[in-house]
Amino acid sequence: KQVQRAYNFNAGPSALPLPVLQKAQEELVDFRGSGMSVMELSHRSALYEEVHNEAIRLLKELYKIPEGYHVLFLQGGASLQFSMVPMNFLQAGKSAGYVMTGAWSEKAFAEAKLIGEVFEAASTKQENYKRIPQFDELNYDKDISYLHITSNNTIFGTQWSQFPDTGDVPLIADMSSDILCKPVDVEKFALIYAGAQKNLGPSGVTVVILRPDMLERAAKNLPTMLRYDIHVKNNSLYNTPPTFGIYMLGEVLKWVKDQGGVEGIEQRNREKAALIYDAIDASNDFYRGHAEKDSRSLMNITFTLQSDELEKKFLSEAKKAGFVGLNGHRSVGGCRASTYNAVPVEACQALRDFMIQFQKENS
Length: 363
Ligand code: PLP
Description:
Blueprint: E1 7-8, H1 18-27, H2 46-62, E2 70-74, H3 77-89, E3 95-100, H4 103-113, E4 117-123, E5 147-150, E6 152-153, E7 158-159, E8 171-174, E9 191-195, E10 206-210, H5 214-217, H6 228-233, H7 243-258, H8 261-281, E11 287-289, E12 300-305, H9 308-320, E13 323-324, E14 335-338, H10 345-362
Parallel strand pairs: 1-13, 3-4, 3-5, 5-8, 8-9
Antiparallel strand pairs: 2-10, 6-7, 9-10, 11-12, 12-14
Helix pairs in contact: 1-7, 2-7, 3-4, 7-8, 8-10
Bound molecules: pyridoxal-5'-phosphate.
């Protein structure tokens, strides 16, 4: 039957693919003939383990994760990774570099500071985070514990288009808001983490992709639940994992595969983002993009209008027209359209049409 779906541009949690929701609905009370919901299965049962391992396998396949890398499903959100990363990898007597590209980098930095010595390897704060630094602006010594970046800045709408080669310095990335939006050379990273609730599934699951040699240097004098090596050894089943979320994540990955894998998703994402950026660029400054063009995000499109009043009117009419989540983050204001993987092309076309129409009526 036809369902009425919102034009969901929420920044997170955000849209999920309709076929995934419908399949979950179908399987909700009787998963694969078990007479139980996935949520009701023992996490030690063979049926659940199949779900768990299939999600890991699919993520490795789709993201072309190199042999030997570990995939973990943890809890506590990306925010707990802000602490776990330095607790495990910020070695005594050493420091770690943080590239400051937005509010989430600042949060990661502040948490790491509670654990040990950290420094800013670059920052575009002075420019209100409207761009990603050039590689030659990155300033760090070769003997630091790691370099941390935020691959996509959800609030400011900027994204790294390429990643630096950091050689022997482990590169660690918060990819919460752009994981799986395009192919990435995972080999460049020692650790990638991401809350699932934007591109991967519901909130409650945090994905960690970890290069195996990192385990040797991970601290061991930590509370058990905060040790990556414990979670690796137990295949993320040390304690009860968020089983329903992991099942949903697996279904989202199957959907990604059906879209032509991450390559197919990237193509669609570029098409979607272009619809909206083109409307901004063709508007004669009626809409103003926040990010510099070569730092623009494929996932979060940030823009302002010429006055607060006009912006308010835009947001209120957009809301009436069925668009959800277009308000900018409370810390920066303006407007933001989050075009994560599951947002359909048609929603972006509808937004583009709405933006053009609104401009016509208000200029
Ligand atoms: N990092 C980035 C880039 C984010 O966009 C977010 C949430 O929006 C977070 C971290 C925080 O994630 P969580 O809510 O899973 O802790």
